């Protein structure tokens, strides 16, 4: 099955459906999942250092007969490597784990930094540190120049922070990877990014196994009308908005289904866009006061850019 590409702001082509790999880390399972996905036609794999499973993905990539240049591999720098002098080493480590020479996309996973010695997501408030986002970004720009990455982007960036960042960028982010699904629609952020030529990549496009999108009565009714599943409706709705999707599954039948999207009518697209339930799966701030701005712009204490 051939997946359509979206052209990024630097001309690089990104497949509009990719494979998510967060929490897909049971030993042996992920390697097989990646191989199956590639056999089914997936060419875009979404990885991250913090998922602690890149070596397994690397094994699958090493064994595939699909040429490297036909694959689109994304990875993300964890927050403990934001100090600019740590960025090149962080990418070398990612490349070593994935057994690759270059990445197609490198993302800044979150718009805040934590201390270098903290390498888990269980950090505390006193481990958050001030590293200006532009310092990290300039180190990422240099990696494009060196050929280690073909495109760079951000993740979990809100509009306020992008508005401050873009005028200072030599390379404007190619994508902003954020949580988007029918229960977290992000109309303003999507419109803003698209107006700046930044492609939105939607994570948790199915609700991440936690948000109840798949059981929404309205989504289910549309699925029945198209003889498809709620998952296919959610993915099709995101694609219709020009959003790249990266659903995760460990099951072949679902991997296949997630590639078989449908054409929704403009009324269906509009009506899903009016769903009022608002729930988000991922919130990094937990009880950390200085991170509340990440998703709650009105409480913004936007950090140093
Ligand atoms: N940048 C970030 O901060 C960030 C944050 C979160 C996620 N991500 C990325 O986005 C990817 C996707 O997000 P996600 O994994 O949280 O959630 P998701 O893809 O929305 O949902 C995955 C869940 O849906 C199930 N599923 C998959 N296909 C299905 C289908 N056709 N029908 C019914 N259920 C289905 C999966 O179960 P099975 O596996 O059992 O099929 C799993 O429980 C991640 O894997 C990761 O790569 C990025």
Automatic annotation (TrEMBL):
Q: Which residues form the NADP-dependent oxidoreductase domain?
A: 16-272
Sorted alphabetically, the keyword list is:
NADP, Oxidoreductase
| Molecular function (Gene Ontology), one example | oxidoreductase activity, acting on the CH-OH group of donors, NAD or NADP as acceptor
Q: Name one Pfam family in it.
A: Aldo_ket_red
Q: Which CDD domains match?
A: AKR_AKR1-5-like
Question: What Gene3D superfamilies has UniProt attached to this entry?
Answer: NADP-dependent oxidoreductase domain
Where are the catalytic residues?
51 (proton donor)
List positions binding substrate: 109
As for family, the record states: Belongs to the aldo/keto reductase family.
This chain belongs to the protein called: NADP-dependent oxidoreductase domain-containing protein
- Annotated organism of origin: Coemansia guatemalensis
